[in-house]
């Protein structure tokens, strides 16, 4: 793993990963269509001699294949991460998550690259029957287009590992927090409170229970497992790991932590209902025994992650204008 | 359920379903791209006043949407069913199974059609850990592009049921046998024996265990469940049912049954190995308790199904030239 191709390189997680890999002494080729990626996130990478950046979309298979030439490992992080708005443009998830992943696999095949890590989501469990939810949870029902498109991508990755001898690492993330965070509830709450410090609108009844992980912990976990090479000896040459904290919080806990950090006491206005939107999952908490058994553990608590995310947003208000 | 749209209407299962629905007094609109469908299978349907046929591909969303106008239920059976050759043209499964299904969902949404039945496959369980395999088997690893593309389609159907209030029936089939059967091991074996009655080449070591269901039983099962409307009250408005016989046979049993029916004693030549090809599943046997609990049961044994399939092929040798 010396020459690494990162899709979604200008994104929240992608750009943090790029910086981490460069610090590790790897050569990195970044790929991003800049639909939500930010050139600012690659400022330090772009000054690094071991970094190359290509602007392109995963739907352009020919360009993707050319850009990947010479690489030996792929982190496929590019995605439409717009979980909430899937029903407004259903084909976006299909194209940007499923077809895009398929193209990454085809570009790898064309280039003889056979190792990849993929950022999937804990949403693929739907409304899980078992919580905390293990990787071998019963065959789920997909409750959002986002999750359906990610689960679909997982399946194609499996088939390439089995059929073409690829080595695959599928990581099912909870929501990720941290520096360069550009969407999600911390973003929404902070943006609201900047405009109207006296009130905060909350989707659902605030009792939704969610787990979060700091981006640095997320990246360490992926690199840890990939370095171990656990999929090499897996039955179908693919391993799946839940990635999350060992705890969860209610949306109301997040509100309390964020308001305390901002020293604000807004009036709370709930939209009501157990779900914030159609397809919202009222309780996401992943069982992370499998990855912890490899020796990884998270360094930051959810509260620390929330506070650091807010701190970064306060220092980078420009990002609030980007969406 | 009066005006029914059937994709893959000229196929093996589709054409049998069309005839059955017309006999039941329904209006049927058939859709087929004739990539593997046979116009001959629709001969009697085409003479029926309640049948309309459109030639088109599910990838042509505009034409599909126009053809579906006025219908109130969709049986989506069109698919690339070429399980064995996925690795030779990986994008075919993505396009013909996943994207095609997505387009069917979009055409339904555009037309206000909200009820569908889908022919998925027992292959989605991969190499199942639990046999007989129940619908809530642990989240599987896909071992073929075919299964990955079908599992992906299932997920999008789920998301449309949850997000747009569709009512969905997902049927995971074992291999289907019977009149108008146009591919599979009975087809291959009979074709071989017509050309070389003295020897039979068998993929794998012959010990693969598989379950089969006769097409008439398959169709009765789907209609039975759809009439009950079980998905209306399901948590996510979608129900999944395994469809198979209550038994399985080894490939060697099939060989014995078919050779006896043909009164032949060929030399058996095995390619060897537990799997006939990469992605072949050495043991497929589905737990069908869930659908049997609704009152359905199969009428024909696997042996009866095999013999009737062979009989039909003997009377319709023209079909052997089609592939």
What kind of assembly state do the chains in view correspond to?
homodimer
Q: Which shape of chain A, going by the Cα principal axes?
A: globular
Largest interface: A-B, 46 and 46 residues
Widest sheet of chain A: strand order?
3-2-1-4-5-6-11
Tell me the span between the first and last alpha carbons of chain A: 35 Å
Helix percent band of chain A: 25-40%
Mean pLDDT reading of chain A: 95
> How many strands in all of chain A?
13
Major beta-sheet overview of chain A: 7 strands, parallel
How much of the sequence lies in strands of chain A comes to 15-25%
Low-confidence spans of chain A: none
- The CATH class assignment of the largest domain in chain A is Alpha Beta
CATH evolutionary superfamily of the largest domain in chain A: NAD(P)-binding Rossmann-like Domain
Question: Any overview of this molecule?
Answer:
The structure is a homodimer of 323-residue chains. Chain A has ten helices and 13 strands. Chain A has helices at residues 12-23, 43-46, 61-68, 90-111, 145-164, 185-195, 215-228, 251-262, 289-292, 302-315; strands at 3-7, 27-32, 51-55, 73-76, 115-121, 167-173, 175-177, 199-202, 209-210, 212-214, 238-243, 249-250, 267-270. In chain A, helix 2 links the parallel strand 2 (27-32) and strand 3 (51-55). In chain A, helix 4 runs parallel beside helix 5 and helix 8 crosses helix 10. The longest helix of chain A is centred in the N-terminal third of the chain and has 22 residues, at 90-111. Chain A starts with a strand and ends in an 8-residue tail after the last helix. The mean pLDDT of chain A is 95. Chains A and B meet through helix 4 and helix 5 of A and helix 4 and helix 5 of B.
